[in-house]
């Protein structure tokens, strides 16, 4: 499987991108546009240098998901990763590939990647485990409340 990350520009046109991504949402360009507007608002609200932005994940000749660094690394050198496989492409290993790609970027830049997930077993946890992340306990996330923290094994 050929897999690659394509950076999302802060000044990208959400309507144009939504039209391109609509097939991954079952033709629902409104959901695609809403997701892209959230991503662009995150990038504009917290400007950060490369490579700490957001990406479209491409595989199977299509855009299969999106992933990002939620911000630049903090004072401890930790950087939180986030990823989402589009509904039409779930269950094919794309989350695993996104986690691996973001982890590689972070570690090559000298940062320590972490992740937060819902407090339940799910596909996101599995992708993290497959990429040598370990459960780090429950933490309070300012945006999401109580979540599970995952840390990359050293």
Tell me what you see in this structure.
This protein is an alpha+beta fold and 154 residues long. Helices cover 31% and strands 32% of the residues. A seven-stranded mixed sheet has the order 1-2-3-4-5-7-6. α1 (14-21) crosses α2 (29-45) and α3 (94-108) crosses α4.
List the helices and strands and how they pair.
Layout: E1 3-7, H1 14-21, H2 29-45, E2 54-59, E3 62-69, E4 78-85, H3 94-108, E5 112-117, H4 123-130, E6 133-141, E7 145-152
Helix pairs in contact: 1-2, 3-4
The helix count comes to 4
Shape: globular
CATH-defined architecture: 3-Layer(aba) Sandwich
Q: Which regions contain 5 or more consecutive residues with pLDDT less than 50? A: none
Category from helices, strands and their pairing = alpha+beta
**Helix and strand run:** EHHEEEHEHEE
CATH class: Alpha Beta
CATH homologous superfamily heading: Gcn5-related N-acetyltransferase (GNAT)
Domain count: 1
Could you estimate the helical fraction of the residues in percent? 25-40%
Give a brief description:
By secondary structure, the protein is of the alpha+beta class. It has four helices and seven strands.
Keywords summarizing the entry:
154 residues; alpha+beta; Aminopeptidase; seven-stranded mixed sheet; 32% strand
């Amino acid at each position: 499987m050929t897999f690659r990350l394509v950076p999302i520009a802060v000044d990208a046109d959400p309507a144009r991108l939504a039209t391109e991504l609509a097939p991954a949402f079952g033709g629902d360009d409104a959901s695609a546009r809403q997701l892209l507007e959230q991503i662009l608002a995150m990038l504009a609200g917290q400007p950060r240098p490369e490579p700490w932005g957001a990406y479209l994940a491409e595989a199977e000749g299509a855009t299969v998901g999106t992933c990002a660094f939620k911000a630049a690394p903090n004072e401890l050198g930790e950087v939180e990763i986030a990823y989402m496989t589009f509904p039409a492409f779930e269950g094919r290993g794309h989350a695993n590939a996104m986690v691996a790609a973001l982890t590689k970027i972070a570690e090559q830049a000298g940062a320590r990647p972490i992740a937060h997930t819902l407090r339940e077993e799910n596909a996101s946890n599995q992708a993290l485990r497959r990429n040598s992340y370990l459960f780090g306990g429950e933490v309070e996330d300012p945006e999401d409340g109580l979540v599970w923290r995952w840390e990359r094994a050293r």
